[in-house]
Amino acid sequence: MTLLLTRGDLETVLEPETCLDALRDGFLNADADSVSIAGQRVRTDLPFPGTATALIPGLLPGIPAYTVKVNAKFPAARPALRGVICLHSGTDGALLALMDSATVTAWRTGLAAALGTHLLAGAGEAVGVIGAGAQAELMVRGLGVLRPRGALVVHDTSADRAAQFAARHGGRVLSSAAEIAVACDLVLSATWSREPLLSLADTRPGAALHEPRRRRAGQGGAGGRSAGRVRARGRRPPARREHGRAGGRPDRGGDPGRGGAGRPPRPRERHGPHGLRTRGAALAGPRGRLGGVRAGPSGGDRAPGGPADVRPLTGCPRS
Predict the structure, then answer these.
(1) How far, in Å, are 16, 34, 220 from residue 13 at the CA level?
(2) Where is the composition biased (Basic and acidic residues) (predicted)?
(3) Which DSSP symbol is given to 32?
(4) How far apart are CA 50 and CA 80, in angstroms?
């Protein structure tokens, strides 16, 4: 029998705390050699205002199944991403489940971004959100599970969507992305913009900019070419012993982005998509709460190339 897991089904069984634990374990146990067949990402333009993508196969050690993920991305639509994840038996290829791809993608991308932000950014900072969509929703929810946060401000091209987001999270609306960057040390950006939203001059010294969406080379966002000398950086997932000792956070020796005593602030840091290939597997696996389905990863795509003046990151959650 094939299980059909709709958006409503998934949102009923998924919990941020459980998903964050599963994603954390996935990062800590990530091993490029643990899966013998590398995943592939196939993308094509369409004669319509969107693109089509297939991710094959989704594999995870110890799970006797694989996934095929098919997405349609139409940035002007709401939601912008629609698709399906097909879970097949590794024994005979039987179709075990069909899952709403947009929901799984939003949860794993948003929560993985929250986890990376928690590990890399300073504590108690005001949080700025650019783009009040599904991934930003999960980023803020996940961050709230992991740590206390300061004030929240949000900007979106839709004033109504920004106001609703602010009301849900006890924040307030600002009128531009630049105002967000001026007001906050920690900026979460999740938009479909193809043009840079911020320049170096817009950001505060020592600011951390987290942008979980995948971008093709030359596209904009929080750290496009106009970002100048914004430094892209990340950390490898913390060792298990560090994770246990620090309660889920590595010993950072002070807040990233800030200088120590007598030292000037460190450069702005842009945390972009790169890292664990099997994040979707963590949500669809034994601890992922998808109705008991033992699923493989939602995709095995490779990390994208970044703009020429921004180095790819190491070990940060990917979109």
Answers:
(1) 10, 28, 35
(2) 239-255
(3) T
(4) 9
Kind and range of the H or E run holding 280 = helix 279-284
Cβ–Cβ < 8 Å for 212, 109: yes
**The tokens 């091209």 sit on which residue?**
157
Beta-bridge mates of residue 99:
5, 85
Separation between Cα atoms, residue 19 and residue 24, nearest integer Å: 8
Indicate the fold that domain 123-271 takes in CATH: Rossmann fold (3.40.50)
Q: pLDDT (tens digit, 0 to 9) for every residue of the chain, 319 residues total? A: 899 999 999 999 999 999 999 888 877 766 655 677 888 999 999 999 999 999 999 887 778 999 999 999 998 888 888 999 999 999 999 999 999 999 998 898 899 999 988 888 776 678 999 999 888 999 999 999 999 888 999 999 999 999 999 999 999 999 999 999 998 888 998 887 777 788 778 877 777 887 775 544 444 445 443 333 333 334 344 333 333 333 333 333 344 444 444 445 555 555 555 444 445 544 654 334 443 433 333 333 322 333 222 222 223 333 3
Are 188 and 140 spatial neighbours (Cβ–Cβ below 8 Å)? yes
Decide: 34 and 26 in contact? Cβ < 8 Å.
no
Looking from the CA of 260 toward its CB, the CA atoms found within 13 Å total 3
Give the whole-angstrom CA distance, residue 165 versus residue 188. Answer: 14
Of 98, 114, 91, nearest to 169 by C-alpha is 114
Pairing of strands 269-271, 3-5: unpaired
Query: 126: closest CA among 154, 150, 143, 155?
Result: 150
List residues bridging with 172 in a β-sheet. Answer: 153
